[in-house]
């Protein structure tokens, strides 16, 4: 396993990191524990989760698995504080469940969410704590001062953000410098061959200012792995089928067409499309590591051989012809209002 320095820190993370959005939704706990153990055995040392994954059950599963295998202190736990409402069953139409302050990255919610994540994870510190999605109405001074407080308490070691616009990240870095507050060490954006827009602004920003990039959806939610045949009839157990909504919207005609051509490249190389998509993402300029998010142990076993693989420049040029650098054929920023405003999207074209 190759290890890479995370941003301007002194810590090294594996060039593949384990994403756990499938834990408990739908992967059962027993298989989650097997996936986590197998990943650690392979040299993966960063496990990424979030406080809203399976309404907190994902964090609980990770905590129990690390307690059972006694490998907590060899593992970098990365979790997130979501910008949305975290109370299970929340409804604006039910006064009994309404809580006016249970949303946004306020000091109140950041500190409260961190305490809850610590309990669910069964640990006394979080290695990497990330602001999940922007809260544009809350000043960076409030968000960063809350994170700074947690770092000074020893409850959080490093901080980062997820799916933020480059200009807002730059603003946060500026506030950290001016106010002497804790500084983001990484950003976690979507990135794959279907959506290469981070190459235009975010990657140059990260390189210039020493920001790590731990990216999600390297397989394009399975589109690049040949998971889908159409934009409507989705396979059972696929994210588009199980979750619908913006997940389904990411399966586009253009994306499917690229996926077919991409599969032919993989076949010519004698590897699977899933392996090709992960290698491509891992070794792109400026990327620290992609998150792999296997739903099953078999999927993880299919991915792990990429540890020893690399791509030729010729293969990279073939991929560039499918989707040119900086461009997009499937919108993986479709949960980010700041990006949605810059593109008019029709998933059937």
CATH architecture designation of the domain at 1-188:
Alpha-Beta Barrel
Task: Trace the largest sheet across and list its strands.
Answer: 3-4-5-6-7-8-9-10
Strand and helix order = EEEHEHEHEHEHEHEHHHHEHHH
The low-pLDDT segments are none
Q: What gyration radius follows from the Cα positions, in whole Å?
A: 19 Å
User: In CATH's first tier, which class of the domain at 1-188 applies?
Assistant: Alpha Beta
Name the CATH superfamily classification of the domain at 1-188: NADP-dependent oxidoreductase domain
| Share of residues in helices | 25-40%
Total beta-strand segments: 10
How many helices? The count is 13
How far apart lie the N and C ends? 40 Å
Described by strand count, sense and barrel closure, the largest sheet is:
8 strands, parallel, barrel
Fill in the CATH topology of the domain at 1-188: TIM Barrel
Q: Compute the average pLDDT.
A: 92
Structural class: alpha/beta
Name the quaternary structure: single chain
Binned strand content: 5-15%
Shape: globular
From the structure above, extract its key features.
349 residues, alpha/beta, TIM Barrel, 8-stranded parallel beta barrel, 13 helices, globular
């Amino acid at each position: 396993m190759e290890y890479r320095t995370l941003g301007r820190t002194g810590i090294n993370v594996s060039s593949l990191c384990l994403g756990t959005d499938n834990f408990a939704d739908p992967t059962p706990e027993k298989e989650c524990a097997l996936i986590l153990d197998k990943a650690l055995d392979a040299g993966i040392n960063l496990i990424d989760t979030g406080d809203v994954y399976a309404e907190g059950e994902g964090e609980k599963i990770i905590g129990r698995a690390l307690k059972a295998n006694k490998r907590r202190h060899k593992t970098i736990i990365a979790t997130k504080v979501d910008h949305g409402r975290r109370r299970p069953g929340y409804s604006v139409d039910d006064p009994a469940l309404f809580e006016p302050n249970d949303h946004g990255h306020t000091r109140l919610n950041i500190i409260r969410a961190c305490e809850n994540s610590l309990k669910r994870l069964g640990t006394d510190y979080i290695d990497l704590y990330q602001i999940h999605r922007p809260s544009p109405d809350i000043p960076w001074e409030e968000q960063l001062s809350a994170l700074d407080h947690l770092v000074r308490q020893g409850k959080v070691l490093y901080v980062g953000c997820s799916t933020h616009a480059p200009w807002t990240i730059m603003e946060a870095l500026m506030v950290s410098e001016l106010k002497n507050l804790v500084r983001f060490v990484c950003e976690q954006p979507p990135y794959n061959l279907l959506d290469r827009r981070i190459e235009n602004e975010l990657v140059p920003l990260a390189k210039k200012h020493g920001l790590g990039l731990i990216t999600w959806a390297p397989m394009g939610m399975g589109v690049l792995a040949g998971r889908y045949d159409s934009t409507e009839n989705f396979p059972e157990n696929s994210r588009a089928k199980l979750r619908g909504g913006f997940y389904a919207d990411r399966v586009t005609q253009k994306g499917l067409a690229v996926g077919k051509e991409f599969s032919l490249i993989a076949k010519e190389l004698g590897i699977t499309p899933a392996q090709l998509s992960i290698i491509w993402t891992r070794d792109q300029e400026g990327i620290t590591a992609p998150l792999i998010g296997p739903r099953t142990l078999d999927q993880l076993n299919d991915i792990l051989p990429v540890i020893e693989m690399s791509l030729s420049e010729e293969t990279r040029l073939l991929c560039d012809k499918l989707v040119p650098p900086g461009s997009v054929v499937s919108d993986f920023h479709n949960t980010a209002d700041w990006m949605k405003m810059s593109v008019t999207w029709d998933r059937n074209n």
